[in-house]
Amino acid sequence: MKIAAIGDIHVRETSRGQYTELFKEISEKTDILVLCGDLTDLGLPQEAYVLAEELKACTIPVISVLGNHDYQSEQADGVKKILQDANCTVLDQEPFIYQNIGFAGIKGFIGGFDQYALNAFGEPAIKQIVLERDHEAYALENQLKQLLAQQIKQRVVLMHYSPIRETVAQEPADIMPFLGSTRYAQVIDQFGADVVFHGHANMGPHSGKTIGGTPVFNVALPLLISLKPQLQYKEFIL
Ligand SMILES: [Fe+2]
Ligand SMILES: [Fe+2]
Fold first, then answer.
1. Which residue of 75, 94, 101, 142 is 20 to 30 Å from 227, comparing CA positions?
2. pTM for this predicted structure
3. What is the pLDDT of residue 72?
4. C-alpha–C-alpha distance, residues 226 and 204, integer Å
5. Close Cβ partners of 188 (under 8 Å, ≥ 6 residues apart)
């Protein structure tokens, strides 16, 4: 199966027509499109409607997760519904199976990496951040467990935030804790996946691995465009 993956398309009300040709090309060349969050720029229903219109150019299944930008206007449920009505599967609790390949997807959250990860210590607000991070980790764990229970041997994980430091390492060190969390890599390594796609960090690098050896690709569109040769989507064959 040929998978096309892109993150951070940040569709605005002015983006009408901007993705039609790309989605047509992806439909001709690949079997499934994976969108890794920040689908809209400000999380507005009007932006989601523009994306829904663009997605009509897609003749292959489209699966996605939301990103932090999709929450900005506190209308994430509305954004999700508009995309679902446009035949775009939005993953958060239930996995998706296509041609015997399983797709588990979460937004993820902040928290930092490795020995510098945030702990549930101190003020209630800090503990709340760690709880939110873990809530997303349990959602990923549940989906991977469901796929294992159904004996789905090939599993793809899509996220918005990064599960490893390596694919966001070119971002400024000061924002590192806000780019993702190692907690998700632990889940991925415990339950197993063939590949992980994420977005959120525009600097990259483009590829890395979890400690357990699962390939991880940062597919944020600005990063893909900055690569030489330039890409508009990541193609991965499974
Ligand atoms: Fe983004
Ligand atoms: Fe983001």
1. 101
2. 0.98
3. 98
4. 10
5. 140, 144, 157, 163, 196, 210, 212, 214
